[in-house]
Write a structure and sequence with these properties.
Layout (H helix, E strand, L loop, with lengths): L13 H5 L8 H44 L4
């Protein structure tokens, strides 16, 4: 690929791009990363579910409190 001395962006071809080497971490490191991210993802899903359940409980509690208030029981 030719280096341009102007401010224009040079065109890249597939041939140019295929000559770039992309460093990758060792397979063991990649596997550890995937395991860690999977764990975090599962924890996030658990937190989302807990938050959803708590919101549903709060909505039900609010409805119950309003019902009791309108019936004069509070």
């Amino acid at each position: 690929m030719e280096v341009s001395k102007t401010l224009n962006q040079p065109n890249l071809s597939i041939k140019d791009l295929s000559s770039f080497e992309i460093p990758l971490p060792p397979l063991k490191t990649q596997q550890k990363t995937v395991t860690y991210l999977d764990k975090i993802s599962k924890e996030l899903e658990t937190l989302k579910q807990t938050q959803k359940e708590k919101m549903e409980s709060l909505v039900a509690l609010k409805a119950s409190i309003l019902d009791q208030a309108f019936r004069g029981k509070l």
